[in-house]
Amino acid sequence: MDHLTLPSATVRSGRLRFTDPDGAARALALGAFSLAVPDGLDVTPGLDFCRSFHLPSRGPEDRRRGHREHGHPRSKLGYEDRPDQVEQLQLESFLWDDYLPADVAALLRRMKDLTLDTLHGVFDAAGVPEHDRDLVTGGARQDTGLCYTTVNHYRSDLTGRAGIVEHSDSGFITVICTDQPGYEILHEGRWLPVHQPPGHFTVNLGDAFRVLTVKTPRPVTAVYHRVPELHPEPPATDRSSFTVYMGPRYDMMLYQYDTDGVLLPYQGFRDFSVEKAKDLGYAFHSRIEAAHR
Ligand SMILES: [Fe+2]
Asked: Which residue stretches of 165-285 are H helix?
């Protein structure tokens, strides 16, 4: 089967640089690229946590396990047993220190800084002016937008269902760390496995970017992606992945440039997300929808 190699990029001194001259243009058109894991950043605590968060707790101080039953009362996201192979934990960045093991929270904080630098690099590539970025992100630099992690455990014992069902991400950017192949993107009408170079994250660009730039000279694709049903042969373990996501808050508007480059409100992000979930036939986060009523 054909596969796709994504354009690759690196963040150095806070600046995103693509390896090839046409890398930025390809990344915007695909809605995805590879991002080098910075020197000295150890992703092991995150991958280990993917393998433990769903296991039964060993006591009240145990932050590595027990997240299936935890409840996470301060989160609007939390644990979800999805209809595909994935069970996942989603937590907003302001809760990482309270709910997660210290080494995992520290790793995610570094990935959050990297995600922010990368987001601004993509804004540069797409021609989104500096002075509009606080408005459209809700203040990603000040951490007043929405930033959360998703921690995924792919349950290979569950059969007859996708690994993760096809979708686009709703926000601006998602940085993904995984330990196994499986990620595929829809490219020119065909699903293609993505060849992931070692030592790289995968970056997805999402709906908030697409809506913002669709009428501009450099429109950004919200990449359609999935993971097919996985059944690793023993001794291989279940697939693990975790991500850092940045998007608008649910109480914010999505924005769009018109053909003259004027920035206009487009639609409330919560309404956009609820409509999208309905179109794709899945339930939106019940706690966020409830807050709206
Ligand atoms: Fe996704």
From this structure: 207-213, 269-280
